[in-house]
TrEMBL record:
Pfam families: Lon_C. Residues 1-25 form the signal peptide. InterPro entries: Lon_proteolytic, Lon_Prtase, Ribosomal_Su5_D2-typ_SF, Ribsml_uS5_D2-typ_fold_subgr. This is Lon proteolytic domain-containing protein. PANTHER family: ATP DEPENDENT LON PROTEASE FAMILY MEMBER. Keywords: Signal. SUPFAM superfamilies: Ribosomal protein S5 domain 2-like. The keyword Cell inner membrane does not apply. Residues 153-243 form the Lon proteolytic domain. The keyword Zinc-finger does not apply.
Amino acid sequence: MLSRLTRLQAVAVCALPVVALIATAALAPLPFSVAQPGMTANVLGDNKGTPVITISGAPTRQTRGELRMTTIEATSPDTDVSLGDVIDGWFATDQAIMPRDSVYPSGESVKEIERHNTEQMRQSQDAATAAALDYLDLSERDVKVTLTLADVGGPSAGLLFTLGIIDKLDGDGSGGDLTGGRTIAGTGTIDADGRVGPVGGVALKTQAARRDGATVFLVPRAECADARSELPKGLRLVPVTTLESAVDALTALEKGKGSVPSC
């Protein structure tokens, strides 16, 4: 003969599967990456003892100020991210929880992802060189540009590479620096025609930029809302859509004339 369970016993029995499910979810790896502000590098200077931009075949100029490309650091694609990590990241202002597929190509090994990111960086450098020389009406047959940035992959430094090449070759076009002596940071892809594209992780990149002394941040216009979400005090956002709009905005800042767009 079966005995009747008390209400407390019944609740306890029913709760067991729920507790087990929660415990499993808390320990199970989830398809996310935890990202945080990464390193920045001045493309007008050296990185790990090597000039980021080397130009031959045309005279270059001494530059003042800095143009800092920005990065994020994310947990590696083979790192297990738990529910606890996700919850911690949601409440941290210097972290972001991102779908792993938005950070790394899905279905690829770590080595394949490294090769993919290296190839994206190479393509970005080629596009930056083409866009900069086209903007200055210079030929790639005559001017050779070498871009070197250790331990960084992906396409998001394209805009800053392009601006760095232009600053070294021509500055603002009338003897001044594109930076106006400031520390300018930013992010954005670029194609050979000078179109600037979004990259992701902008809110974290603004934090990296301000940490390393930037007062102005160039952001793809499509990512203004993300950039404003955790904007550090003292950092001015300047949205851009093309290389020409970026140069125009920097020149207006430098000379204190003309309209500087804002998010």
